[in-house]
User: Fold this.
Amino acid sequence: MYRAHTVSTAVAVSPESAYEYTRDPRNLPVWAPGFIKSIEQRGDTWIAQSTLGEIRLRFAPRNTFGVLDHDVELPTGVFHNAMRVIPNGAGSEVMFTALQQDGQTDAAYQADLETLRADLHRLRTVLEAQYGVASPAGREA
Assistant:
């Protein structure tokens, strides 16, 4: 079993709004520039330029449960990423569980977690600005 850590952030928009924005791969370069630089669709697959080079992404189909899981295909293999949007009071919680892969150093894993935190913070900022919501102070991804 791999070491796992879930990074999350509270977002002051409805879960439906957070889900719809986040599920659109075209928005990834906006809120996840720490990993995705650009993206385009080719058939059922999305091809992205990332910090690891060109990657292929496949996403969970639209659903009513807030599941945003996706597979990332790298030259070294396919990795499943678990991501969710769930209700949190009048807003939502966006969660991403990162697994430490075989051969990944603790330092590299921690760097990945920091990138995830920054990207989820950016997602929160983008969503709340888009919906004209003031972000409550003291929330961290």
